[in-house]
Amino acid sequence: MKYFYHYAVMLVICIFSLGTWAEAHADGKIKMMFGDVQSTSFFQKDTIGKGSPSKPTVLSAPSDTVGKDSIDQSDVIVHYNVDPTKPHMGKDSVYIGAISRFPFIALPQYLKGAVAGLYGQETSGEPGTVQQAVIIRGLSHPVFTPYDIAKNKPLIILDGVPLIEDPTLVYDIQDYALQPIGAATSLQTIVDMDNIESIKVMKDYSTAGIYGPRAANGAIYITTKNARPGNRRLTVNAYTGFTGTPTLTTINAEYEKNFRQVFYNRYSSPEQQDAFPAYLSDSSNTSFYGPSNWTDEYYEVTPLVSANASLSGGGARSNFRVFAGHTTNASGADDTKFGRYQTAFYVNMLPVKWLTISSMLQMSRLNRDRNRSLSERFAETRFFPDMSTPLAPNKDMYGLFLNEYDKVIDDNVNNSMVGRVMVNFALLKNLNFSPRFSIDYNENKRDVFWPSTLMDGNNYVSNYFGYNERMAFDNILTYDHRLSDNTNLLLEAGMNYQTDAQKYNYGVGYRGPNDFIRVNVVNGNSNDENYLRSVGFIPYYYADRTYQRLMSFYGRLTYGKTNQYKLAALLRRDGSSAVQPNSRWFNSFNFNGEYDFNYHFEADFLQQLKLTASYGRMAIIPFSDREAAGPYYTSGLGWDGNRSMFSYNGVGTINRPYDTGWVGYDLPWSYNDLANVGLEAGFLGKFTIAAEYYNRHTQDIATTVPTVAESGYRYEVLNGMSVRNSGVDLTVGVNLPQDESKKFGWIASFNIAYNNNKLTALPGDLQEIILGERKLIVGERIDRFWLLNNEGIFLQDADVPKHPQDGRPLTYNGGTNFRSGDPIWEDVNGDYNIDDQDRRLMGNIMPKYMGGFYNQFTYGRTDLSFQLYFHLGRQIINAGAAKFFDFVNTDEARDMDAVRDITYWEKNFDDQAYPLYNPWSAVAPYQAEQNLFLEDGSFIKLRSLSLGYDLTDVINGSKQTFSRFYAYITGNNLLTFSKYSGRDPELVNFYGYDNGLGIRFPRTFTMGVKLDF
Amino acid sequence: MKDTYKQTETKKGFRLTVGRGLILALIFTLASCDKLLDVDSQHIVNEENKWQNINDARASLMGIYGLLRSALAQDNAQWIYGDVRQGDFLASSRRDLQEAVSGNLTASYPLIENLSNWRKFFAVINAANLFIENSGKIVAVDQQYTALNQRIDVAQARALKGFCYFLMARIWGDVPIWDKAYEGTFPKVSQSPENAVLAYAEQELRAALNVLPFRYGSLTDEIYPIEFYHGSTFENWDGVLFNRISVNAILAHLMAWSGKYLESSVYSEYVLANAAKSVAGYVPIGNLTSAEGFFFTSTNSQLVAFPFKWSALEGSFDGHIEQLALAEPLVPRPIPEIYIPRDRIVSIFRETGDLRFTFNSVGIPVTSYFTDFQSERPIFSKIKVIRGGSTDGSFPMFSSAIVFSRLEDIALLRAEALAVLGEQELARGILGQLRKNRGLPEIAPSPDLLDEIFLERQRELMGEGHRWFDQVRYHKIKGDDAAFNTLITEKGIFWPVAAEVLAANPNLKQNPYWN
After folding, report:
1. Neighbours of B191 (CB within 10 A)
2. Cβ–Cβ of A425/B15 closer than 8 Å?
3. Where do the domains of chain A lie?
4. Within its chain, how far is the Cα of B426 from the centroid?
5. What is d(CA A175, CA A869) in angstroms, rounded to the nearest whole number?
């Protein structure tokens, strides 16, 4: 936090001293002196959505629309904050106008369906949860664990600051990784939609290359609204609304009893009948057999509120902007809520004419009310009470359970601060030197107390504090030269140094003295032998930290001629502390060019016909510091079910990482080779079409490979895996501005992306590896399920095929004979034994096609817009249905598998669609890993609809109080078209399983205003 | 445009100076950038920083013990290998345990598959091999770490390695032998026959035999009299580390398993004769079954044991027999996962006066082994170390040590060896002493002595992971049970090798019995 105070003090001084000084000199007309004075007008112009439907801009497509950073007005405007890299941000921008009216809080929500090739996933409707991701152009790494998700994420850049994410190292001590310990709030929620000027998606290295190895999976650049000179300008945005409650079919014990009775009648032994659960036996028990109306307590109409205001002003030599806002969001389910306070300050100064200073500071505080599910609670406590009786589906009983939450403490807070100071020295007319300092610091706090009434007589307390800090130092030298033939040469050289620190402390206490002491207090007497040991609770302490540094040097040359061609070359050298010393540095490069054929045609109907191409190689940042050490030692002694064991007889131990895998030497950087070819065309000033083909070959990926068990290691970490992603992104835009009579206007943007991935190599000469429930085969996709092919049911023992030679019946995993009531699974290799060799790759987790369709119609002062959003060609394992059928194992389990949340009493599958197998059979007939539970997960959603009216003239009357008064209503998550039998095809975890843990996305309705004074 | 720049030209000189200065400063900082990238990780230790001082030696040595404890605790391996498989216990509802009880070891349950996987033992062996190969480096750099200390530590590592091979030979029979760490270039070694594995185990154990002290951190120890062993006195090490008695006890077991009863009797006699040197003794019944007794407190009476030290926060939910055997009213769980049926209990404890279980004069059961005997599923509560030895089970975290051997075990083993060798009287004497400790009278000369010895083992060591292996030895001696003979000759007494293990090493062969 020390940085925060230093920075805040500095800012306050800046605002008050220089602000007043500069206002006195505000009339000077000063031109801006950055390299992009020429370059922006000369190269690709920015397309920046303005958040105003009345001033539409074209979406995600080339155009001549000039944003606010336009140079045309630069005779009078000073832009201290302009980023020289801006002309290289590419054409893929998100139309802010399309999303700024909706109650979205997180980046994946802003981006879903907004840009071709961009995949946004929320695994739950719980607002602000960390279980969401944005992925650009497919998976570059196969996803088996929470660690792997981090490897696929793009870099998020906020006003030039590369943001740091929460570390994955907390998973090291967790037995159940449903959520990371700590607040588990997404840091991609720190920016208020109304403070965003533009979002750029950088998909290839002509744009993302400058951001280095962290941007190897692409980058998302968020530009917030900055200070600008001019009259004091006040802007106010506000909305209010509510979540709807879903309609769903609830079930009670009678349903479940009838459901089970069929199986009991047909298959059970007397002992199994004796074990019939008690809660189902007593039909007079109204808690279970009465009305299943738990939904009345679970789903609730919840208000949504957001309000923010910004003030900007100042003169040409110094100006400022202040933003403050508050947002509350909710899912309307299980009392989950999200709150955010955000403030942002921007100060730009020009103390002397060759020196500009601009600074930015954004602070957010995030609060989250998390769900009350048993699953997530027990996943954290690792303590499983007797769960043979689930929560009752009756409202009164469930209400009693919820009343216990009055005693609960569950505080989840994140504080975030992103700051940046940028200085520019105009050394010569065309030569600029710009050092910058950026910091991203965030804290993650969670305090939990669960009373004994919720935990079988044992209460539980846990406290988590973690922080992530990234400081970045940049020095950039730019030389911009305009040649006589109207061509332009831009040279850039830069160095960048980033240092990351991530740390957490976590204390857990079991079984405190009573439910009134909710804090894990430690003994403060330093003479006592129990000094700093917990008083009352049975305590466990954990801490870990990691440091990483990245050093980069780069040079870029861009040469081109306005509206005709451009050629650019980027060379960079990156060194990371997380790579082994002998291969610490990696050379990356990118070459790109574009040519506009319309320069020759000069056809009237054609605005541009531009061919673009780029080819580059980029190192991929290692995500952990473990591999850098080579063969290493660590402290874990734990096993599955008891991860957190680190000592023997109180002595801390140190061993090789037998569980996570042998790490040898010679693990170099992995890298992407990315080729891109695109065509952009604009017709009649109204239509645009952009198509782009890409081929990204991710190479030398280090991966865990199962190894010889006699080594003691479960895996070896070997490099040499390669994954190719190829596909096409297509965007079609229509922009019919309102005609002179201001009647009808239409803006539309349709995007669709095709993506396919393929495993091209595995380490060594391996052709396939098995990792958990999944298998990777060279030549196949990396995101396929590995399943048994279901072909029916053995109705009688005689139907079970017998081996022709020795007459042995078909077996399961070599040991168990198939009997009547067991499933018929295809014996792929014909050895009369069903095992892993009979599993086949089926389906795929990532959609083959995805996209969005946005439309905005304007008529007079009214506008109507909607967004459709789709994923096609992907599959889901309906694990929720599998679990319901597999009730025998659920009843017997004593761990996570035994947990039945209140949502168990919701019917979200077709119980007639599955054969009636013998659920007691040892062949695991209802295992989720068979194509019986594989479903088509394609969907199209009407994601949002809004209606707005510009009231400026009406309200103003003769006075000019408002420069804009815009009111609107919206509806969200309105319709879903899908063949999927579960709740929502989006509520799927990263591994393609719908396990029923995600909270439904709420249907929300809001009304709001946007005011400019 | 030009006007603007003209205005600035007057200050150009100063501006350039500033700029040059900054660029120069930048160049100087860059010169040291490679060094900036050397960041030592905070949660791991690399090879360079390992083997530097006595703390590394201690942490590594404890790591070997810890891994072995994990290997025996995970999936409750110690008890499923030893007690659940075709033993006295029945499984109430869990079908994976039921399959283990009936010896259907290829049944498709994760538990059974995990127990078929020997990787966990090879992790211990790898750690031991690394210690044996590298700990000598510390002696050269840290004067605190004496050559003698290192020699004793290496002897422990070898004993641990030998013990692992012995355990694996008992479980799988034919097992590959790895005698070094093979850093990174892992060979695909094929299985050695059972007797070669046992011979290798014996060799490693014998290498430790004459090096280890009787007691660590004791000035009165005749081998290694030192007040502080790795920083602590005997109070911290009793019942924790392998001492000379431990290794003799393991060798006695190993020899008995190999059928070499003469050697077994020699080793067991050494244990009995020298137990006092490590302050090991017989356990009174009250202490044995107390929540804060034998299984909670580490003492050298636990000849070979792996503690979960409660005061060091090593208690756990998982990896204790209590997790399987306890239920209401001791812990909040409706029925125990494994239990011994009433009639079976009665048939095992058939003599009156037995302090472990008996019916008193009015026919009411008096027992310190069981709780709720009258219920359908009596709870086996001989071992019930809840948390720090509490009797309040509402929070079922356990800290009982895994005890592989105690003095009673070795005494019975010696009696068994003597009986096999024909020394009936000596054997009878030992058995009589043990029976007396448990309130039983001298046995009449007529019954089959060997049967009595094994019956006493069944009663005394119930729930300590011995039953299955005792049955194998018993049937090997007797040879009168045709079904069991087939099991022995066809290697059905062993576990199958996990498919995952076979898949990673094509030179391995599945046990033909399970093919």
Report:
1. 20
2. yes
3. 2-16+28-241+301-630+665-777, 789-838
4. 31
5. 36
Distances A353 to B6, B8, B11 between C-alpha atoms, Å: 11, 6, 9
Query: CA A606 → CA A62, A555, A692, A781, distances in Å?
Result: 12, 35, 19, 40
pLDDT in tens, A376-433: 999 999 888 888 889 999 999 999 999 999 999 999 999 999 999 999 888 887 888 9
Of the candidates A977, A723, A987, the residue with the CA atom closest to the CA atom of residue A869: A977
Q: Please state the three-class secondary structure of B394-462 as a single string.
A: CCCCECCCEEEEEHHHHHHHHHHHHHHHCCHHHHHHHHHHHHHHCCCCCCCCCCCHHHHHHHHHHHHCC
Beta strand A219-224 with A155-158 is parallel
DSSP label at A1002? P
Confidence of residue A529 (pLDDT cuts 50, 70, 90): low
Using the beta-carbon criterion (under 8 Å), do B46 and A631 form an inter-chain contact?
A: yes
DSSP letters for A512-537: -S-SS--S--B---TTSTTTT-BSSS
What ipTM is given for this predicted complex? 0.91
CB contact under 8 A, A712 and B184: no
Give the list of residues 6+ apart from residue A180 with CB closer than 8 angstroms, or none. A130, A146, A166, A168, A170, A171, A174
Return d(Cα B499, Cα B485) in angstroms, integer: 27
A121, amino acid identity = Q
Provide the CB-side half-sphere exposure for A167 (13 A, CA). Answer: 26
What is the three-class DSSP state of A728? strand
Closest-CA residue to B457 (of B423, B424, B410, B401): B410
Report H helices in A49-137: 96-99, 107-111
Instruction: Report the run of H or E that residue B370 belongs to, with start and end.
Output: strand B370-371
Contact between chains at A647 and B66 (C-beta distance less than 8 A): yes
Phi, psi of A506 (to 5 degrees): -145, 125
Contacts of A891 in chain B (CB under 8 A): 93
A539 interface with B at CB cutoff 8 Å: yes
Closest chain B residue to the Cα of A662, Cα to Cα: B184
Cβ within 8 Å, pair B15-A426: yes
Reference A996, options A504, A419, A375, A119; nearest CA is A375
Query: CA-based diameter of chain B, in Å?
Result: 123
Region A63-79 average pLDDT: 33
Of the partner residues A538, A539, A649, the one whose CB lies closest to the CB of residue B307: A649
The pLDDT of residue B384 is 92
| Length of chain B as a residue count | 515
Q: Which residues of A31-47 are buried (b: 16+ CB within 10 A; e: fewer)?
A: bbbbbbbbbbbbbbbbb
- Gyration radius of chain A's alpha carbons: 30
Cα(B317)–Cα(B373) distance, integer angstroms = 25
Cβ of residue B482 closer than 8 Å to a chain A Cβ = no
Domain ranges in chain B are 308-400
Q: Give the three-state DSSP class for A567.
A: strand
What number does CATH give the domain A2-16+28-241+301-630+665-777? 2.40.170
